[in-house]
Amino acid sequence: MENSSAKRLDFVRTNEKSDNSHHHYKHHHQIGHKHGEGSAIDYYAYASKIRGWNPSFKVAFSVLTLLLCIVLNNPLVSLAVIVSMAYLTVVKGGLPLGAYLSVLMIPLTFIILGTVAIGIDFSRQPIGQFNLYLGFGYLYTSIAKLKEMVFLMMKVFGAISAMIMMTLSTPSSEIIGVLRKAHVPKLIIELMNLIYRYIFILLDVFNNMRNSADSRQGYCDFKTSCQTFGNVASNMLVLSLKKANAYYTAMEARGYEGDLVFLEDEKPFQISQVIYAVGFMLFLLLLWYVTK
Amino acid sequence: MNTRLNIREKRFVAVVAAIALVFGFTPVASAMHIMEGYLPVGFSIAWGGICIPFLIAGYLSIKKTLKENPKTITLLAMAGAYVFVLSSLKIPSVTGSCSHMTGTGLGAILFGPAAVSILGIIVLLFQAILLAHGGLTTLGANTFSMAIAGPFVTYGIFILCKKIKINRHVGVFLAAAIGDLFTYCVTAFQLALAYPSESGGVAASMVKFLAVFAPTQLPLAIIEGILTVVIIIGLETYAQPELNDLGYLTGGVK
Predict the structure, then answer these.
(1) A258–B77 C-beta distance less than 8 A
(2) Testing the interface with A: which of B9, B16, B35 to mutate, by most A Cβ within 10 A?
(3) What was the ipTM of the complex prediction?
(4) Degrees, nearest 5: CA angle B131-B187-A129
(5) Which of residues 235-254 of B touch A (CB under 8 A)?
(6) Which residue ranges does UniProt annotate as crossing the membrane (chain A) (predicted)?
(7) Which pLDDT tens digit goes with each residue over A193-212?
(8) DSSP readout, A136-165?
(9) d(CA B48, nearest CA chain A) in Å
(10) pLDDT of A218-256, one tens digit each?
(11) Where are the domains of chain A?
(12) What are the boundaries of each domain within chain B?
């Protein structure tokens, strides 16, 4: 039986199209992976207090910080990035700390599994500071490897916090706008704009189907769940194809001739922010240089 | 070193085994995206570079389809949104864990591998932005494993099974499951290449990554295969005309 957490609202539709629907649902802020965190990120992006900052600035700042964090590969730099990005998102952006942590924890399983695989090694000889005999060889690790593991974890968390600083404060439509300004081909931008909108439409379709299947005992055991999942998914494809045709007609009726144009808010650069950002980058470089 | 374990060591082994078991049975398995910040810069750039020819091919193929039939733009966008939603859905599982489909296998069977490469990179970008799965610097590596390697293998096996006239549904199952497994192997290879083991090199490291992710990825591949078959059966029952429509999108399945 699909547990009740599945019914806890998985996908909060939260962009402007659905202002009236999101406050019916309660957000549970807790640490750990939650299914459907996805649209919650979209919701937080719209609610962020630093949403008014220039999106190009935010994207450039976040990507540069991310790159510095990876290129410099220095635990202190990672730590500085983690702290400052948390400050920007939680204090400046006004996101509740619990919500921030729960987004940060999404990749936790991958990080644990991935770093353990790096930190622990097999060998025929007993080498390293710690080893464990398994009958066919040794499972070993050493202080140096454990250190590498911890540093890698910090680097990954630094990089993730730099990325989610951007995604938690910049709605996807604005990120697409930035990509458009960066001369990504028009076809890709149009597809992205449409896909972004259709995602929420399909999620809505899916939620309705799932609820009606659930109220008819469609998820009562594993076998039925698989069958229901398949039926819902195939039905969703049929509906989405029908909708695609309808939307094209609607677009044509509004004068679509091969160009999709979206209105974008003008959000001017603030020189002070740029100065702070450059200062921050220099600080990271200095930190790296001093502790190299 | 003494090869016999004393009681304390035995207890330690038992505890470690228990932890391993717990992790093995409660996986939060998304379809194994490489996380942001995990790959060194050189590898991020290299994998991105490898993707470029495939992306250009996909871009040109989409552009050609659109020129012939402008109406396909909404269809393609819907296909992308569909793959995204499918990959973000929680799929049924026996252990109560939380896992997701890749969705690109089904995408390749329905829409053809060329279109999936472009849709795949967009979907992966949205997964990074909206779901915090994967990342920006690892986009190249993830695109290669999930939007290029997996779908191409899936499509290849699907066509092969059609040629040698295996039962269609068995073919779909094999295509989706093996495509998923291939994605998982490619990801393990990408990780191993970036972090080779100091005693055994890339090969040993790859074995480690395969082993560590096996408990989450093997059942997932089988479930993905089964679900893809169920979806295809549903489509054949209810959506024959739509399936035929999709044919012109890509020259995919009719």
Answers:
(1) no
(2) B35
(3) 0.79
(4) 105
(5) 235, 238-239, 242, 245-246
(6) 59-87, 99-120, 149-168, 188-206, 274-291
(7) 999 999 988 988 888 888 89
(8) SSEEEE-HHHHHHHHHHHHHHHHHHHHHHH
(9) 15
(10) 888 888 888 888 888 888 888 888 888 889 899 889 888
(11) 30-171+266-292, 185-261
(12) 37-246
